[in-house]
Design brief:
Elements (H helix, E strand, L loop, with lengths): L17 H11 L5 E2 L4 H9 L2 H15 L3 H33 L5 E6 L2 E6 L8 E5 L7 E13 L1 H4 L4 E3 L18 E2 L4 E13 L5 H8 L8 H30 L4 H15 L4 H18 L2 E3 L4 H7 L2 E4 L11 E6 L8 H6 L22 H8 L4 H7 L3 E6 L7 E7 L5 E7 L1 H6 L1 E3 L4 H10 L3 E10 L15 E10 L4 H12 L3 E5 L4 H11 L6 E3 H5 L3 H9 L3 E3 L3 H13 L4 E4 L6 H6 L2 E5 L4 H6 L2 E3 L4 H25 L2 H15 L7 H15 L20 H29 L4 H18 L1 H4 L13 H16 L6 H4 L6 H30 L12 H10 L3 E2 L8
Parallel strand pairs: 1-24, 10-18, 10-21, 15-17, 18-20, 19-20, 21-22, 22-23
Antiparallel strand pairs: 2-3, 2-4, 4-8, 5-6, 5-7, 5-8, 9-23, 11-17, 12-13, 13-14, 14-16, 16-17
Helix pairs in contact: 2-4, 3-4, 3-8, 4-9, 4-25, 7-8, 7-24, 8-24, 8-25, 9-23, 10-23, 16-23, 19-20, 24-26, 25-27, 25-29, 26-27, 26-31, 27-29, 27-31
The structure holds adenosine-5'-triphosphate and magnesium ion (MG).
């Protein structure tokens, strides 16, 4: 356990001076458990970590000393260029990720030089005085100096869902802190109620949370997409390993020179493995994140873009997303529906502003939430404002999303005390002693009109009663009336909903508001509602009943934060990829529970923190753009994968077979590597390729089985074709080794590079889909370069001779025939794939680990020593 700061700190209500804070920061380092600085060394090391490259370099070195200098040098150059290519692309992407990270700031309220200032959480040092408020993530381990009904959710540390009540430390505070010590607030936990002030005792890696986060390692958890990539690479490694071994053994049996056989088999293995896959993915993501940033979507981690593309169900809140979110008080009504000032009067002091903001007249908009701010600003509140100004607020029980009420004990100048309550009408009526007949009908009519309705009620207290206020006192109230706020549907949301539907995304509404209001909003926006459920209906259900209900329901209304989370879980449990969009404290746990958590720049800390994606604007249209971008990236990555598993793979496979049959090696190791390099370079244009509109219409999913079936079908098609080429070369052109090498080099490069035009689209024939200019240029350049090579001065050292015109003509014809063959096979393949083939979904990561990682992203610094001690 961390040693506590001396209790003298309690006396230092002025906090640290800026100089002292800077001095301490220099000593203890930033308050971070991660670094997001792009570092070139690890990127380079990752490039070199491929055992294949190391083996190949080793073998080349050996052959250098055995006298094969030219070969060895050529291989060396090709390897350096390959690694350089991967490195520059990956590093550029890492820089893009760094830039992205710096755009999302996390701050805490800290007292420095005697005044409260906002400080980047990374700059906190032991001894800093930190203010805590509902919705905040505790920015460091704290010893609490004062609290006001401070409640923390420590689930991130303890795994328990119960909220923990905190209290201020007395002077003789224990020197050793235990996790269950109520006078401590721990970094990474969430303030769910009340407020407090604490002094920082530990930062960064020395906090409880820091230890937990560091134990997980600094790498981010895999997303579904990355897991898919990893399994795919694993598949290829196995295939490459088996093939290489066979080739090597066969060549040994044929008494070929050891080094030649080794170099040849290694070159084949290099040819098969998709070395550029990581680079392709990184470029796609970096380009995608820049595009998204322009569309006002910030992605916390690059890889989340692809998961965004997976979205099948979007669960969203109402206020500000489907509605304008700019509230205006329209009416203040008595219980009978007649206009009355009284409800406004009662409601005004029931704000979440701390009780210390006294008298009531001094409440400022900064202390208020949207609804309360609208109330205070309303012209209808002019007279009531002067009525409440002389009142004293004795005690406050702030609004919370579970009970959906706010209460306050007010004292009149003559000493009379009253309990004033405002909140969701259902909740306030439940606490009223008598409800006049007709009131519920009045209420339903107001709800159906779609506005936000809040009820006000009161109870007279005995003299001197009410210094302390708790929930049990919210009873036997007299209903005073209702406040009706307008919150009109957003015009842009209608268009966005249509777009989301056309993307195959099912939109559902989860709100704390009344079901009739939710229905009205959906009706106005044209969102088809299958069924409506309220939080109360869900609470009695067990998991499987809940899952069934959630599956068929569009609107979930009057839900608590806990309900929101359960709904998201239940929806995911039926196997769908669920995105959740919300901005309040009450949304944070649901954001965490979703596959893709989405929040808004203006959201509360916790919501923003829990999110993978932050919208600079709360707008569904922007989100639809993000989904499209995610799918585009995914589609392009899959193109590369399918490419790598068809011709490229087939060519290497035929070379392997041919090596066992031919009297000479079918291609020399440097030639294989060079062809591979040219091919790879042309593939670097894939991330910028266009994607057919129909491919963007469905959620994207990794389907390893599809890839495997593709490989099994197209590998042999390509190989069969190669064998045909061999036959032509040997028996028609009577090629010797050099001519054979040159002929097959050109033919294999042309087939494997050009086939992208067939594979990149599911349309048939392929020319009905237009590729990007960049791709066309890159592929043609690679192929023409390959064809020209034997005619250049580079030809002879590489072991090529110029091709006769007749052979070139035959190769052109064969390549054309090959493309037609693949086209036909492709059509059959996708027809088969469409019928049947249930999706095999990968297992998901344990949610808790994911939460720790997401929260750790908050405590990230661009400095290398970020791990702090
Ligand atoms: N400041 C407040 N004081 C009193 N009652 C409030 C206040 N804010 C909201 N309410 C009541 O509580 C209900 C639930 O509000 P809450 O903010 O929890 O819903 P929400 O789930 O965030 O809704 P949305 O989906 O619109 O964002 C509201 O419908 C309203 O009746
Ligand atoms: Mg909300």
């Amino acid at each position: 356990m961390a040693p506590t700061q001396s209790t003298q700190a309690i006396g230092r209500a002025r906090g640290l001076t800026s100089e002292e804070a800077a001095r301490r920061l220099a000593v203890v380092g930033p308050n971070a458990v991660r670094t997001h600085r792009a570092q070139w060394l690890p990127v380079l090391v990752a490039q070199l970590r491929s055992p294949l490259l190391v083996l190949l370099a080793g073998a080349a070195a050996v052959s250098f000393f055995l006298g094969e200098q030219t070969d060895a040098v050529i291989i060396g150059v090709i390897l350096v260029v390959s690694v350089g290519l991967g490195f520059t692309n990956e590093y550029r992407a890492a820089r893009a990720a760094e830039a992205l990270h710096s755009r999302i700031r996390h701050e805490a309220m800290v007292v420095r030089d005697g005044v409260p200032v906002r400080v980047d959480v990374v700059g906190l040092v032991p001894g800093d005085l930190v203010q805590l408020q509902r919705g905040q993530v505790v920015p460091a381990d704290l010893l609490l100096l004062s609290t006001a009904t401070l409640l923390c959710d420590e689930g991130i540390l303890t795994g328990e869902t119960a909220h923990v009540e905190k209290q201020a430390a007395s002077d003789g505070a224990a020197q050793v802190a235990e996790l269950d010590d109520p006078t401590r607030a721990w970094m990474g936990t969430v303030v769910v109620g009340g407020s407090g002030l604490g002094v920082v005792t530990a930062t960064g890696g020395r906090t409880e949370f820091g230890r937990l986060a560091l134990a997980l390692g600094s790498r981010h958890g895999e997303t579904e997409f990355q897991a898919g990539l990893r399994r795919f690479s694993g598949l290829l490694v196995i295939v490459a390993g088996a093939l290489t071994t066979c080739v090597f053994v066969a060549n040994m049996v044929l008494h070929r020179p050891l080094i030649d056989a080794l170099l040849f088999s290694l070159a084949i293995a290099v040819g098969i493995t998709p070395q550029l896959l990581p680079a392709i993915v990184s470029i796609s993501l970096a380009v995608g994140s820049r595009t998204l940033a322009r569309q006002r979507v910030l992605v916390k981690r690059l890889v989340c873009i692809e998961d965004l593309g997976d979205t099948e169900i979007l669960m969203t809140d109402k206020t500000g997303t489907l509605t304008e979110g700019r509230m205006e008080l329209m009416r203040s009504l008595g219980p009978d529906g007649a206009p009355s000032d009284e409800p406004v009067t009662i409601a005004l002091p029931c704000t979440s502003a701390p009780a210390s903001v006294l008298p009531v007249g001094e409440v400022t908009p900064a202390d208020l939430d949207v609804l309360d701010a609208a109330l205070w600003a309303s012209p209808l509140a002019r007279r009531p404002r002067s009525l409440v100004a002389p009142l004293r607020r004795v005690a406050v029980l702030p609004f919370d999303h579970d009970r959906q009420r706010a209460s306050v004990v007010v004292e009149h100048p003559d000493g009379r005390r009253e309990l004033w309550v405002k909140g969701a009408p259902e909740q306030v009526l439940a606490a009223c002693g008598f409800v006049p007949p007709g009131t519920r009908d009045l209420l339903d009519a107001e709800f159906s009109a779609g506005g936000r309705v809040v009820a006000a009620a009161r109870r007279v207290l005995g003299a001197g009663v009410g210094d302390e206020l708790d929930v049990r006192q919210e009873r036997d109230l007299d209903l005073v009336g209702f406040l009706v706020f307008s919150d009109p549907p957003k015009a842009s949301a209608r268009v966005a909903l249509v777009r989301l539907r056309s993307l195959g995304i099912d939109v559902k509404l989860i709100t704390g508001d009344n079901p009739l209001v939710a229905q009205r909003v959906c009706a106005e926006l044209g969102l088809e509602v299958r069924a409506v459920a309220t939080g109360a209906e869900l609470r009695g259900l067990d998991d499987s009943a809940l899952r069934d209900l959630v599956a068929g329901t569009t609107i979930f209304a009057r839900v608590t934060p806990e309900d929101k989370q359960r709904i998201v879980r239940a929806q995911r449990a039926s196997g769908f990829d669920v995105a959740f969009l919300g901005d309040g404290v009450n949304d944070a746990s649901a954001i965490h529970a979703a596959d893709i958590g989405i929040s808004v720049d203006t959201a509360t800390d916790v919501a923003k923190d829990a999110a993978d994606i932050v919208l600079l604007e709360k707008d569904l249209g922007v989100l639809a753009d993000g989904v499209v971008e995610g799918r585009r990236i995914f589609a392009n990555t899959i193109k590369y994968v399918l490419m790598g598993t068809s011709s490229n793979f087939g060519n290497m496979f035929s070379a392997a077979i041919a090596s066992a049959i031919l009297p000479f090696l079918p291609m020399l190791p440097p030639q294989i590597l060079l062809g591979n390099l040219l091919y790879d370079t042309s593939q670097l244009a894939i991330p910028g390729d266009t994607v057919d509109a129909e491919q963007l219409r469905r959620p994207s999913h990794w389907d390893l089985r599809l890839v495997r079936r593709w490989m099994v079908l197209f590998g042999p098609v390509s190989s069969a074709f190669d064998l045909g080429t061999f036959a032509v070369l040997l028996w028609v052109f009577h090629a010797d080794a050099a001519l054979f090498h040159a002929g097959w080099f050109v033919e294999s490069l042309a087939t494997q590079a050009l086939v992208i035009f067939v594979i990149r689209t599911r349309r048939s024939p392929f020319y009905r889909s237009r590729p990007s200019v960049g791709l066309v240029v890159a592929v043609l350049a690679a192929v023409l370069g390959g064809v020209a090579l034997p005619f250049t001065p580079l030809g002879p050292p590489l072991g090529f001779v110029p091709l006769p015109g007749s052979l070139l003509a035959v190769i052109v014809a064969m390549v054309a025939a090959y493309l037609v063959l693949v086209e036909v096979a492709k059509r059959r393949f996708f027809r088969l794939a469409r019928s049947g083939l249930p999706d095999s979904r990968p297992r998901r990561r344990p949610p808790h680990e994911r939460r720790v990682r997401r929260r750790a992203a908050r405590f990230s610094s661009p400095h290398l020593d970020a791990r702090g001690g």
